[in-house]
Amino acid sequence: MRLISEITLEENHLVFAVLHLGGWDFHCCIQSFTGRLAYTQFKDRLFELLEQGSTAQLILAMSELSDDRSFSLQHLFVEERHRIMQQLTAETKKNLDRLYTQVYRDNYSILVAFQRDELPVPVELQIAAEIALSNRCATAIATLEQSAGDPQALLNCVSELGAIATEANRLRCQLQIPEARITLEQLILRQLWQLLHENDPSVLEGDIERLVKLIEVSKQLRVGLSLARVQELYYHCLYETIVPSCFLDERQATCPCRWTPSQLCPLLGLGQELEIDVSPWLK
After folding, report:
1. The pTM is what?
2. Cys-Cys link to 144, which of 113, 139, 157, 200 (CB 3.0-4.6 A)?
3. Position 250 pLDDT exceeds 80
4. Domain edge (last residue) among 48, 75, 102
5. Model confidence over 50-96: pLDDT tens digits?
């Protein structure tokens, strides 16, 4: 690698080697680049020792070739060290997630039998089930967020989440997906805004059906969903737009009604789903 200071324009051409010994244990050596031949010999020597499987000899050779100066994660600035530690932890977590998922799949029938006969489930199996289902749910929610603009893809994701919720409830699993609540709340709020202000009124009923299903499955996941902001948005639109434009005399209406009379019933039904009192206009 060639390093150039943007301040002093000082330049260094260096050769480095890093050996990952597992976990957070790294051994790094650096020396000045003295020519292509020396670099090739340095590299060939290290790979020769690596193929022999002798870690001790490999570390010794690295130290000899770099004047006994070695570096580890502790020599990095704190921010860079933490970034690498997070990357390593993420990879370890992926491996553990795969392991737990395999344990859950292999022992699914045993879990069902324990639940059916109301016997205490072994802690190890219960934890494996909760982690596996939580990971599956997190993946489905991420896919749901990406496909929010595609009605059919959204329905597919909602169906998948419904299946996960049913499975989790049957096995009495508590899903560990703390970020899911915020994601679902924001998605529902965005879907409602588009339905009330931007979407084509001719497909209103389909939009409402998908939104209601999304709300229902979000509740089934038991992630502590709050619909306060969604309720505020609907309530504001009800009294600022829907009632003035669709239920007042034409001479009193503030603007033309976007929806036909037959569409107002499902629109108000959505308000009932959100626990907003719309009974005066439904009647």
Report:
1. 0.68
2. 157
3. no
4. 75
5. 888 778 888 888 887 777 678 888 888 999 989 988 888 888 888 88
The average pLDDT across 143-160 equals 87
- Write the CA distances from 28 to 11, 25, 69, 88, integer angstroms: 21, 10, 9, 17
Identify whether residues 217 and 144 lie together within a single domain: yes
Burial 6-16 (b: 16+ CB within 10 A, else e): eeeeeeeeebe
Closest CA to 254 of 237, 229, 276: 237
Q: How many domains does the chain have?
A: 3
Instruction: Indicate whether 186 and 251 sit together in one domain.
Output: no
Contact (Cβ atoms closer than 8 angstroms) between residue 217 and residue 180: no
Nearest to 177 by CA among 124, 214, 132: 132
Q: Indicate if 175 and 198 belong to the same structural domain.
A: yes
| Number of C-beta neighbours around residue 171 at 10 A | 19
Same domain flag for 55 and 108: no
The dihedral built from the CA positions of residue 93, 96, 100 and 106, taken in this order, carries a sign that is positive
Count CB atoms within 10 A of the CB of residue 26. 19
Residue 148: give the domain boundaries: 82-226
Domain identity same for 8 and 71: yes
Domain boundary among 18, 44, 75: 75
